[in-house]
Specification:
Protein name: Branched-chain amino acid ABC transporter substrate-binding protein
Oligomer: single chain
Family: Belongs to the leucine-binding protein family.
CATH architecture of the largest domain: 3-Layer(aba) Sandwich
Largest sheet: 7 strands, mixed
Number of domains: 3
Keywords: Amino-acid transport, Signal, Transport
Organism: Hypericibacter adhaerens
CATH topology of the largest domain: Rossmann fold
Strand order of the largest sheet: 7-6-8-9-10-14-15
Strand content: 15-25%
CATH class of the largest domain: Alpha Beta
CATH superfamily of the largest domain: Response regulator
Distance between the termini: 81 Å
Helix content: 40-55%
Domain Leucine-binding protein: 57-417
Number of helices: 12
C-alpha cells in the first residue's frame, strides 16, 4: 500500500509537473508572440489595452482654464480631454503606453500660464503640454515652452502661431486660426448681409486678430468698416458700446468671450429691438449659453460662425455621432447628464483632435522617452504631417496642415438662428481660408 501510495503520489506529482511546465511554456510562448505582434503593430485590441495598462505612461501636461474668464471653456476642454484619453487608452494608448493627464489650472492668466508650463517641465517632467485657449495666455506661456524645449500644442484659434510670433516648439494642429476663419466667410457676409460693417471685439490679441483680418477681408470684398469698438475683458455692461455704432452700419459683427456673454447679447437686443442692422456673430458670444435663455428671442434670424455646429444637422456624420456620445453631449449640444449645461461645442473638439495628432506624431517618430532627441523627432514628425481626414479622430471634418506654419486649416460653418436653434446655411471650403505663409518654423533650430 505504501508502495502504491508512493507510486500514485509519484504519478500525481509528475502529472502536476507536466501541467505546470505546459502552463509556463504557454505563457512564455504567448509573451514571445505578443512581443512580435507589438513590434509589427498587429496586437489585437484587448492585448493592446493590457499592454498599455502595464507600461509606463505617456505624461501629458494639460494647461486648463479652470478659473478666470476662460472657466466655461476650461470645464468642457477638460471633459473632452478626459473622454479622448479614455478612448485612446482603451484602444492601446500610444506606442503601447497609456496616456496620463497631469492637469494644472492657469487661471486664464498669462503670467500664471508661464509658471504652469515651467512646472510641467521641471516638476511633473511631462512629455508634452497642450490645451491653452485664450490668446493672451498663449502669448504669455509659449516663450517658456520654447525656452524649456517642451512641445506645446495650443487649442486657441489665435493667429499667433501661424504669424511666426512664437517658436518651433509651439503648434496649433487641431483647430483653425482666426485669420483663416474670417477670410473664408467674408465673401458670404458681403454678398448676403451687407458691406458696411461695425465690429465689436475683445480688447486683447484674439480680438485684434478679428479686427485686423476681417477689416482687410471685407475691404477686399468692396466693403468698409464703419466702426471698430474694443471691449475690455473685465467689462460687465455693454450698452455704451452699442451706442457707438454709426447709423449707416449694415452689419454688426460681434465676438465676445467670458462670463459676460449672456449679458452682452441681451443688452444688444435691448439696444436695437426690432430696428437693427444685420447681425453676424462669432459663436464665442454664445458659447456655453442656452439659446432658449430669456432675452435672446431677438437673435432669431441672425447669423453665427461655428467651427463645429452645436446642433446636430440633418446630414450629421457618423463621426459626429461617435464624438458626441464619447464626450457626453446630446443633439442640442448640451450635457447628456444635464440639458441645462450647454457645451462649448465649437471649440472643445480641438482638444480631442489635438490629442490624436500628438498620438499620431509619437507613433510616427517612435517616441519613448522624454529626452531632447526624442522631442526633436516628435517636432519633426508633426511638421511632416500634411492632412487629417474626417474620421472618429477628426470629427469636425477633414483638414490640411502646414508644417512650416504649425497651423491646420479646415471648414467653417455659417449658421442661422431659427426657432431657438442654429441651422447651417453655408459651409466654406478649406481653400477659402488659405493665405500666404508668413514664416517657416522648420528653419528655426530645435
Amino acid at each position: 500500500m505504501t508502495s502504491d501510495r508512493k507510486g500514485n503520489s509519484s504519478r500525481s506529482t509528475s502529472k502536476a509537473g507536466r501541467s505546470l511546465i505546459t502552463r509556463r511554456g504557454l505563457v512564455k510562448g504567448l509573451g514571445a508572440a505578443a512581443g512580435a505582434a507589438a513590434a509589427s503593430g498587429l496586437l489585437p485590441g484587448p492585448m493592446r489595452y493590457i499592454q498599455a495598462q502595464a507600461a509606463e505612461p505617456i505624461r501629458l501636461g494639460f494647461q486648463v482654464h479652470r478659473t478666470g474668464i476662460g472657466a466655461a471653456y476650461g470645464r468642457w476642454y477638460e471633459q473632452t480631454t478626459n473622454a479622448a484619453v479614455k478612448t485612446i487608452n482603451a484602444a492601446g494608448g500610444i506606442n503601447g503606453r497609456p496616456i496620463e493627464i497631469v492637469a494644472e489650472d492657469d487661471g486664464t492668466d498669462p503670467k500664471r500660464g508661464a509658471e504652469v508650463v515651467e512646472k510641467f517641465a521641471t516638476k511633473h517632467k511631462v512629455d508634452a503640454v497642450f490645451g491653452t485657449l485664450f490668446s493672451h495666455v498663449v502669448m504669455g506661456s509659449a516663450p517658456t515652452a520654447g525656452q524649456l524645449k517642451m512641445p506645446y500644442f495650443v487649442v486657441s484659434e489665435g493667429h499667433h502661431v501661424a504669424s511666426g510670433a512664437l517658436n518651433r516648439y509651439t503648434f496649433q494642429p487641431g483647430i483653425t486660426d482666426v485669420r483663416s476663419q474670417v477670410i473664408s466667410m467674408a465673401p458670404w457676409i458681403a454678398s448676403n448681409l451687407g458691406r458696411k460693417v461695425a465690429m465689436i471685439y475683445p480688447d486683447y490679441a484674439f480680438g485684434y486678430d478679428h479686427r485686423d483680418f476681417f477689416s482687410a477681408a471685407i475691404q477686399g470684398q468692396g466693403g468698409a468698416i464703419t466702426a471698430l469698438i474694443p471691449v475690455a475683458p473685465t467689462e460687465t455692461t455693454y450698452s455704451k458700446y452699442f451706442a457707438q455704432i454709426p447709423a449707416e452700419t449694415e452689419v454688426l459683427y460681434h465676438v465676445m468671450v467670458g462670463p459676460g456673454v449672456l449679458t452682452f447679447v441681451k443688452e444688444m437686443g435691448d439696444h436695437f429691438g426690432s430696428s437693427r442692422p444685420q447681425i453676424f456673430g462669432f459663436i464665442d458670444s454664445l458659447e456655453a449659453t442656452d439659446l432658449a435663455s430669456p432675452g435672446l428671442e431677438f437673435l432669431d434670424g441672425t447669423y453665427f460662425w461655428e467651427a463645429f455646429p452645436r446642433y446636430a444637422q440633418k446630414d450629421q456624420s457618423e463621426f459626429d455621432k461617435h464624438y458626441r456620445a464619447a464626450v457626453g453631449v446630446d443633439d442640442n449640444g448640451a450635457s447628456t447628464a444635464d440639458p441645462k449645461e450647454v457645451s462649448t461645442y465649437s471649440h472643445m473638439f480641438g482638444c480631442w483632435e489635438t490629442l490624436y495628432v500628438i498620438k499620431a506624431a509619437m507613433e510616427k517618430s517612435g517616441y519613448q522617452k522624454s529626452t531632447f532627441a526624442q522631442k526633436g523627432k516628435l517636432i519633426e514628425a508633426v511638421e511632416a504631417m500634411t492632412a487629417f481626414p474626417e474620421s472618429d479622430e477628426h470629427p469636425q471634418g477633414d483638414k490640411t496642415f502646414n508644417g512650416k506654419l504649425h497651423q491646420c486649416y479646415g471648414h467653417q460653418f455659417i449658421s442661422k438662428v431659427e426657432g431657438g436653434r442654429l441651422n447651417v446655411v453655408h459651409k466654406t471650403a478649406i481653400e477659402d481660408g488659405l493665405y500666404e505663409p508668413e514664416t517657416d518654423y522648420t528653419k528655426k533650430a530645435l
